[in-house]
UniProtKB/TrEMBL annotation, chain B:
Keywords: Oxidoreductase. PANTHER family: GLYCINE CLEAVAGE SYSTEM P-PROTEIN, GLYCINE DEHYDROGENASE (DECARBOXYLATING). This is Aminomethyl-transferring glycine dehydrogenase subunit GcvPA. Its EC number is 1.4.4.2. InterPro entries: GcvPA, GDC-P_N, PyrdxlP-dep_Trfase, PyrdxlP-dep_Trfase_major, PyrdxlP-dep_Trfase_small.
UniProtKB/TrEMBL annotation, chain C:
Pfam families: Aminotran_5. The glycine cleavage system catalyzes the degradation of glycine. The P protein binds the alpha-amino group of glycine through its pyridoxal phosphate cofactor; CO(2) is released and the remaining methylamine moiety is then transferred to the lipoamide cofactor of the H protein. GO terms for cellular component: cytosol; glycine cleavage complex. This is Aminotransferase class V-fold PLP-dependent enzyme. GO terms for biological process: glycine decarboxylation via glycine cleavage system. SUPFAM superfamilies: PLP-dependent transferases. It comes from Cryobacterium lactosi.
Length: 305, 466, 527
């Protein structure tokens, strides 16, 4: 798996796994990654798409950053370079421990098979992996790592938590950004699931649509969500539990979006995506929305179906 | 429109050359390049400005206009209060006017090397005068330095009230009030003023004790104070602040530091002040400039809004250069999340100041401090010998002192009007700023004032109050 | 590439830090002793200081003669490239700092004035200030300018403080706590709004390269205190919907402030007040020909506003009664002071001199030429391998600047924009500007041709970048190890930020070096 290609360009690879078939399968990826992990590599650099990213994630080598060389179109996961060249540069920076390369928790997403069965293309959030990304730094800051997005997101989360009103239900979407809100409340959270908070208490864990609607009944509620994946998904990909009906009942002005400015910038001008499966709700969400990017800072960003 | 005349500042103002450039990009007229600006945004007429002047005409026009000024060079001036007349060596003027640094911007540490080194030497020499390891590049004035320092203290302590001496320049206090924000703002910093002792001009310690508490982010005082007085209980004030968990911020005029103790030595955490007295002319107030300094503790460094410049090794062994430090925490790096804001300041005055400090050396600062003390005290005594004239705080001042005309029937304005007719700029009128001092004026005497100057003032004052 | 371009070489003086120079006892400046009468009365000056406040040990300053100091700094000035070569640093609007302006500003009728002198003695100075005010009113349509702000950011701060005063006077300050800006507006607008206590709402760009009207509408509310925005932005993109923007903000009860930092391409073409703005700012040290001084100043951010806002202006304001000029301090609604005194007079004199030398015709010409030069350069630059332009959809000609990207070059060769900046200086061209933070465009660079440099100079700039691109593709190491012709080489990454190695003063440097955090330098007595 890759040995021939590596030799062809003049590397002397250390082969950790030889697949039994010419056409490799998921298991081969997982076994290889496990072997690399055991060998103590600094980075798992893989070629492929969202499926491969999932396989790497599944091999439980969480402590080692992963980086994808994109070999397909439009990856949903946020662990890929923007181009093969870019992935190469990024890998080099990371391995050279250059301060321009930082590591963050990035979403691993893949096609949602349930949705495909319904003839829709959507994506599901499978987990988070450490992944290097390049900070776009000006010359003078090149050497310095500024206060990272981590601290900013924590501060926003603390504020969201502090401003929660009594008697109001707060639905926390999946992902690390919203997890910070639970953490500042001192509550446990489901990383990949949807939780609900009422009066400082966790009133629902890993809720599905029906569970959410039950809790929301006759009660003012807010949705707190992050931006998921490399394509900037707001609703519908990675947080399907927050269904069109949930969004409709909550109301557009009760949606709190939290994201690091760097995450928005990495979308390179592409809008935040909504794909709730309900054209009416998608239209309602389309337009511009305030994203909390700092303690006393909002950024207005475009949303599109 | 007629064909414009080529202008000496614009190499491409030759019409044929513009044609050549237009042709090369395939455009008929310059106008086509402005299509982004909609018609209804466009000014529909030519600008109505005074006629263009040739260099010769411009020179004559400006000299004619500027000669309507009367300067502190052809007159005898005793004005201070934030801008002071000191001797500026000719070599300093030559250095600060060099086109190389005037035309520089943010190049690379290699292409800006000389300028960066000069800036670093400014910080280094000021650090020696202050006995402090961290000195930022200059900020726009003493008042802005104090304002930034108070905000730093509020961030460092997480508190939102500051204690400031009332014997402060009202202009500076006004700058500080704007920095501290009005009460409507969530990040408002409250200001409590501490009175001065009517007899000595020093801080009223009773009042200070009352004002400082667990809500206090910082205590700010100045040595010498606005009224000229040298605060003698610096350590005591710092101890009171520290006991409450507050920062001690001291404002100084660094020209005094050859003879006066460095504030760090009596407990200051952050020191601010002017750099104008270090080789910068008055420029009608355009000479104003300030600094912020502290210990090198990363907690303090992290709160600087000013740009900082650090020495560094280069990629070549044994070679050193200089680069901006902690740039990312400024508003250039973090926009609204940066510390306050930064932008154009008075960095050329740092170059004047570094040259000045190097020419002065330790002996120069000692001598100038001694001279100023002698001349100012002599002037104070001579003036107080005039019937009807008193000096409010006759002991323990540096170069400024408060002259009272309360025992005369003249206002400061009247006295100054008469002095002006004699070619003398009298001291700053304090009668509205500090009404409790009555008809009083703040006089500044420096190394430039000779015995004859002081005697001339004394004579003119006798006449003015008669 | 035909012939290799000739390179430049900086003077290499290996100049020691001044902290290591001199000899004990040497003097650079003497003061004649006080006259005997004075000395007799005060023989011991230190006795005039309270004992607790006397300095105990002399400051460790260098002891040098006058020529030693003078030539040290002249050598350092020579090791500063500035515009001695060529510098077209975007957003800084590099233009000629005329020597006549310097000569006038350094006359004693300017340098030897005290700001608190009686206004009768300042008539010439006030006439120049008033003259500059009049010129800026004509350029903007505003009703009154003040010059107290010591730079553009300071003028933005002035605007934020006046915004506070305006809403406070209407009893709405507590409610109106948001200022709207755009991601492409200079960071100082967002920063000063935040420092003045406002919450900052930032609009991102849409496909056209500027934020859409819809984005603005999503941001405006009864909490809106003001809009702070530039136009064109520093990519040379002009927002054609600005009149509507201002209308919407006014309708919501907010003020509109126009940051005219990028005025060169717009001057004589439009006026802020006619687009509807309540206030604007000009940088005299940039658009009006006064020096940038290392982006350090002294500088002036001239702040102008409508009659309605004029009551809040920082005092004093220079007025004219038809006969004499006055410093008007009697302004009951003033915000007070932004900075002590009434402005950097020398900078105002230089800007006034520049404006009079240019006249209306010259100012219009400068605007035309700067936009022509930018578009001329764009054609040459886009022909270079590895160079692309930001926002390809925004295809109409840019104004006085264009934002480019070297992302392609980086992906192809590994050479990034910092490498290119360094290599440019080897040709006597000072490092080009990249972009403000955050970098929306990867590996950005932004030249601003301006009106000073001739076509030959612009051609050389393009040729240098073309050659560096060739080098990147053929011999990337040459670019990555640059500069090769400067007084020093690149700094070791990280040393100016790492707390164990950074040193902002010589005394801090000595302590850290003695702690072993730093290697021995060339000036180390032990080496």
């Amino acid at each position: 798996m890759g040995e021939t290609a590596a030799r062809a360009v003049g590397f002397t690879p250390l082969v950790v796994h030889r697949p039994e078939e010419v056409d490799t399968v998921s298991a081969d990826t997982q076994v290889s990654v496990a072997a690399m992990s055991k060998a103590g590599v600094d980075l798992i650099l893989f070629v492929g798409g969202d499926g491969t990213a999932r396989d790497v994630l599944a091999s439980k080598a969480q402590h080692i950053p992963m980086l994808g060389i994109p070999a397909g179109v439009k990856m949903h996961s946020a662990v890929f370079g923007t181009s093969p060249q870019n992935a190469g540069q990024l890998a080099a920076l990371h391995l050279a421990r250059d301060s321009a390369a930082a590591v963050r928790e990035a979403e691993v997403m893949d096609l949602d098979e349930d949705a495909i069965r319904e003839d829709r293309v959507s994506a599901r959030l499978y987990g988070y992996a450490l992944s290097p990304y390049e900070r776009r730094l000006s010359q003078n800051a090149k050497a310095g790592a500024g206060p990272g997005e981590e601290a900013t997101l924590d501060a926003i989360a603390r504020k969201v938590a502090a401003r929660m009103r009594s008697g109001v239900l707060y639905v926390l979407g999946p992902g690390t950004t919203t997890r910070r809100v639970s953490t500042s409340l001192g509550l446990p959270s489901t990383l990949l699931g949807v939780d609900a908070v009422l009066d400082g208490r966790l009133v629902g864990r890993d809720l599905d649509e029906q569970g959410l609607l039950r809790l929301m009944a006759d009660r003012e509620s807010y949705l707190v969500v992050g931006v998921l994946g490399g394509q900037g998904s707001l609703f519908g990909r990675g947080n399907q539990q927050i269904s069109a009906e949930v969004i409709r009942r909550t109301g557009r002005d009760h949606i709190i979006v939290v994201a690091a400015l760097e995450k928005l910038i990495s979308l390179d001008g592409e809008p935040l995506r909504v794909d709730t499966g309900d054209a009416e709700v998608d239209t309602m969400l389309t337009g511009h929305i305030r994203v909390r990017t700092g303690l006393e800072q909002d950024t207005v960003y475009r949303v599109q179906a | 429109m007629s064909v414009p005349t080529p202008h000496p500042y614009m190499a491409n103002s030759v019409p044929a050359l513009q044609r050549e450039m237009l042709d090369s990009i395939g455009v008929d007229s310059v106008e086509e390049l402005f299509v982004q600006i909609p018609e209804d945004h466009r000014l529909q007429r030519p600008l109505n400005l005074p006629p263009r002047l040739s260099e010769n005409e411009l020179r004559r026009h400006l000299i004619r206009t500027l000669s309507k000024n009367t300067t502190a060079e052809t007159n005898l001036s005793f004005l201070g209060a934030g801008i002071w007349q000191h001797h500026v060596p000719a070599a300093v003027d030559e250095i600060v006017r060099r086109n190389e640094w005037l035309t520089s911007v943010f190049g690379e540490p290699s292409s800006d090397h000389g300028r960066n080194q000069a800036w670093f030497e400014f910080c280094s020499q000021l650090g020696e005068l202050l006995n402090m390891d961290l000195v930022g590049l200059p900020v726009r004035s003493w008042g802005t330095a104090a304002g930034h320092a108070l905000r730093m203290a509020a961030r460092l302590t997480g508190r939102n009230e500051v204690v400031i001496v009332r014997a402060i320049d009202p202009e500076r206090l006004s700058v500080i009030r704007n920095f501290c924000e009005p009460p409507e703002m969530a990040s408002h910093i409250g200001i409590r003023l501490v009175d001065f002792d009517a007899a000595t001009g020093q801080i009223d310690m009773e009042d200070l004790h009352q004002a400082v508490g667990p809500q206090t982010a910082a205590v700010y005082f100045e040595v010498p104070s606005y009224l000229g007085v040298i605060e003698s209980r610096g350590s005591e004030i710092a101890a009171i602040a520290h006991a409450a968990g507050a920062q001690t911020i001291v404002g100084v005029d660094p020209i005094s530091l050859g003879v006066l103790s460095a504030p760090a030595d009596y407990g200051a955490d952050i020191v601010v002040g002017t750099i104008q007295t270090l080789g910068v002319r008055m420029h009608a107030g355009g000479g104003a400039g300030g600094f912020i300094a502290s210990s090198d503790d990363p907690r303090y460094a992290a709160e600087y809004p000013a740009l900082l410049i650090s020495i560094s090794e280069t990629l070549v062994a044994g070679e050193h250069g200089f680069g901006l430090s902690l740039f990312h925490q400024s508003s250039y790096g973090l926009r609204d999340k940066g510390n306050d804001w930064t932008g154009h300041s008075v960095y050329m005055w740092a170059i004047a100041a570094t040259a000045y400090m190097a020419m002065m050396g330790p002996r120069g600062f000692e001598e100038i401090g001694a001279q100023i003390l002698q001349r100012a005290h002599y002037a104070s005594q001579l003036l107080s010998e005039i019937d009807g004239v008193d000096v409010h705080f006759p002991a323990g001042f540096f170069k400024e002192f408060v002259v009272s005309f309360n025992a005369t029937d003249k206002s400061v304005a009247e006295v100054n009007r008469t002095l002006l007719d004699d070619g003398i700029f009298g001291g700053k009128d304090l009668s509205t700023e500090f009404p409790e001092l009555g008809q009083s004026a703040l006089y500044s005497v420096t190394e430039i004032h000779t015995l004859a100057d002081i005697e001339r003032l004394s004579g003119a004052l006798r006449k003015a109050i008669a | 590439m035909t012939e290799k371009l000739k390179e430049y070489h900086a003077p290499v003086w290996n100049e020691s830090s001044i902290m290591e120079l001199g000899y004990p006892g040497r003097r650079g400046l003497l003061f004649s002793e006080a006259e005997p009468n004075i000395r007799e009365r005060f023989p011991e000056p230190e006795a005039l200081i309270p004992a607790s406040m006397r300095r105990r040990s002399a400051p460790a300053l260098p002891e040098m003669t006058e020529p030693e100091v003078l030539y040290h700094y002249l050598r350092l000035s020579q090791q500063t490239l500035g515009m001695m070569g060529m510098s077209i640093f975007g957003t800084c609007t590099m233009k000629y700092n005329a020597q006549i302006n310097e000569a006038m500003a350094w006359r004693p009728e300017v340098t030897e004035l005290h700001p608190l002198q009686h206004e009768d003695t300042l008539q010439g100075a006030l006439e120049v200030v008033y003259g500059m005010d009049t010129i800026l009113r004509e350029l903007s349509g505003m009703d009154q300018f003040v010059f107290q702000a010591g730079g553009g950011a300071d003028a933005a701060y002035t605007s934020a403080v006046i915004t506070r005063a305006y809403h406070a006077a209407r009893g709405e300050l507590a409610q109106r706590d948001e200022i709207i800006t755009t991601i492409q507006t200079h960071p100082s607008s967002a920063a000063t709004a935040a420092a003045a206590g406002f919450k900052v709402i930032t609009l991102m760009l849409d496909e056209n390269g500027y934020p859409s009207l819809d984005a603005l509408k999503a941001a405006v509310s009864d909490r809106t205190a003001a809009l702070m925005v530039n136009n064109p932005d520093d990519m040379g993109v002009y927002n054609p919907e600005m009149k509507e923007w201002v209308r919407i903000v006014h309708e919501a009860g907010g003020l509109a402030f126009y940051d005219h930092a990028n005025f060169n391409g717009a001057m004589s073409k439009l006026r802020a007040r006619e687009i509807g703005f309540d206030a604007c700012m000009f940088m005299l040290h940039k658009t009006f020909g006064a020096p940038k001084s290392g982006v350090g100043g002294p500088a002036v951010g001239a702040y102008g506003c409508s009659e309605e806002l004029a009551r809040y202006l920082p005092a004093p304001v220079v007025t004219y009664d038809g006969d004499r000029y006055h410093l008007d301090y009697d302004r009951p609604h003033t915000i007070g002071k932004i900075r002590e005194f009434w402005g950097n007079l020398p900078v105002i004199v230089k800007a006034y001199a520049w404006s009079r030398s240019m006249g209306a015709e010259g100012i219009a010409q400068a605007s035309d030429i700067s936009v022509l030069a930018n578009n001329y350069m764009e054609k040459g630059l886009l022909a270079i391998r590895g160079v692309t332009r930001s926002h390809p959809n925004a295809s109409t000609p840019r104004l006085e600047m264009t934002r480019y990207s070297l992302q392609q070059l980086k992906e192809d060769t590994g050479v990034d924009v910092h490498d290119v900046q360094n290599r440019m200086t080897d040709f006597g061209i000072d490092a080009m500007w990249t972009s403000h933070e955050p970098w929306l465009v990867p590996e950005p660079f932004t030249p601003e041709a301006g009106e000073m440099y001739g076509k030959e100079a612009l051609d050389r700039w393009i040729a240098v970048l073309a050659q560096i691109s060739d080098e990147a593709y053929s011999d990337p190491g040459l670019v990555k190890t640059s500069p090769h012709n400067q007084a020093i080489h690149r700094l070791k990454a990280g040393m100016t930020d790492d707390p164990s190695s950074r040193a902002m003063t010589w005394r801090a440097f000595l302590k850290k070096r003695n702690n072993g955090a730093l290697g021995a330098g060339p000036h180390d007595p032990a080496s």
